[in-house]
Amino acid sequence: MFHFEEAIAQAIVGRVFPGASLLVAVGDEILYRGFFGNETLIPSPEPVTEKTLFDIASLTKPIATTALFMLLLSEKELSLNAPAAKYLKPLEHREDKRKITIRHLLKHTSGLPAWRPYFSDIAKDHPKLVGKRECRELYVEKIAQETLEMPVSYQRLYSDLGFILLGILLEEYWETPLDQIFKEKIAKPLQLLNTFYQPIESPSPTPYHFAATEDSSLRKKLIRGEVSDDNAYTLGGVAGHAGLFSHVDDIHQFSVAIKKGLAGSHALFSKDVVEEFIGTKTKIKLGWDIPSLKDSQAGHSFSKNSIGHLGYSGCSFWIDLEQDFHIIFLTNRVHPTNQNEAIKQFRPQLHNSIYEELVRAKISPLKS
Fold first, then answer.
1. What is the pLDDT of residue 368?
2. pLDDT of 233
3. CA neighbours within 13 Å on the CB side: how many for 251?
C-alpha cells in the first residue's frame, strides 16, 4: 500500500470526506486509479465504486464553459474581445457593464463580485421559477445591477457571476440549452461518456451511482444526483459555473485532450487557441486557475507552468504542462454537511505524497 492510500483511508476515518476517487497519469498513461470510502452515509453507508460519479462543482468552468469558448475560437466563430452585452442585452443598460468583454469574464477580470445568493431572493419572490430555465433572464438582470468590486480589467477577482453570464451567453449564441451544447460539442467528440449535466426538469433516466452531497435547507432534502450549488439548481441544474457530474476517467480524457491541443495534435482545439488560453505567455489564464505562490492547494511539486481548478464539493484536478503529469481527485467533502474544510490541509499533502511515490520516478527518465 502506498503512503497516500493510507492517508486517504485515515482522512475518511477522520471525516475529511466520506468518499473519493483518484487518478494519476503521466502523459496519457494512467499510473494509478483508485476508489475509496462511501458515496453516502445516509441512511446507511454505500461504497464508492468504479461507477461512482461526483458533482464536480466549479470544475464545470474549465471542462464545459471554457472548453466551449476554446472550441468557438478554434472554429473562428467568435471574438473574445466582443462585449458580453452584445449577447446579454441587460448589460447594455449599465455603463460599467458595457466595457466587460468575454475575455474579461473568462479571466475573472470583469470586476464582478465573487458570489451572490440570488437563489434565496428568487425562492422568496419567484418560487415557481426555481429550478426552471426561465430564471436565466432574472440572473442576467440581477448581475447587470451589481456594483463592480473594482474597475474592469484592474485585477483578477474570481467570480461565479461571470461564469453564470458566460453559460447564458453560450446558450444565446447557439440558441440551444447549455447541457445539449456541451453534450454535442465537447462530451461526444472527447468520448466523455460519464460527464453531463442533470437538468432539474429532465434528469437522466440512466441508473448512475451518484455521490451524495449536503442536506439542503433550501430544498429540504439530502442532495444526490442533483446539483449541489444553489444558484445552479435555481437555474435549472445547468449553468456555466457549476452543474456537471463526472468521473476520474473522463477528466483524464479531457486533460489529455488539453495537453494534445497545446502540442498541436488535437482535432478539437487548435494550438494557437490553447496557447492563448493557457500558454506560458498568458499570465492570467482564461478559465483556469494556476498554483498560488504560497500554500497552494496543488502542493509544492507542480511546476509554475501548471493549470487546474478546485470545486466547492471537494473535487480538484491539476495538470502540469511542463512535467506532463496530472492528478484528479474527486470527493464529496460536503456530505453530509458543508461545514467541513479539512480538505484544504489534506489536499496539498496528498499531491506531494503522490508526486514522491509515483510521479517523480516516472518523469525522471523523461527529463534525462
1. 46
2. 97
3. 32
The pLDDT assigned to 77 comes to 84
Give the position of cell 469558448. 69
User: Is cis: bond before 43, omega within 30 of 0?
Assistant: yes
pLDDT at 365: 63
The pLDDT assigned to 366 comes to 58
- C-alpha span between 308 and 36 (Å, rounded): 22
Q: What backbone torsions phi and psi does residue 19 show, to the nearest 5 degrees?
A: -145, 160
Q: Is 317 helix (H, G, I), strand (E, B) or coil?
A: strand
What residues contact residue 186 under an 8 Å CB cut-off, 6+ apart? Answer: 63, 64, 67, 68, 71, 192, 268
* CB 182 within 8 Å of CB 145: no
Residue 180 parent element (H or E): helix 178-182
Pick from 261, 366, 358, 355: which is nearest to 303 by CA? Answer: 355
Rounded distance, CA 99 to CA 312, Å?
30
C-alpha cell belonging to residue 87: 449577447
> Mean pLDDT in each 10-residue stretch from start to end of the chain (368 residues)?
98 99 98 99 97 99 99 92 98 96 99 98 96 94 98 97 99 97 98 97 82 94 97 98 99 98 92 96 97 96 98 99 98 96 98 98 71
Report the candidate in 190, 173, 171 with the shortest Cα–Cα distance to residue 247: 190
Cell 448512475 found at: 208
Is the separation of the CB atoms in 319 and 63 below 8 Å?
A: no
What structural domains and CATH numbers belong to the chain?
3-59+196-221+243-367 (3.40.710.10), 63-188 (3.40.710.10)
Taking alpha carbons only, the member of 38, 33, 34 closest to residue 16 is: 38
Residues forming a β-bridge with 30 = 25
Distance separating the N- and C-terminal Cα atoms of the chain: 29
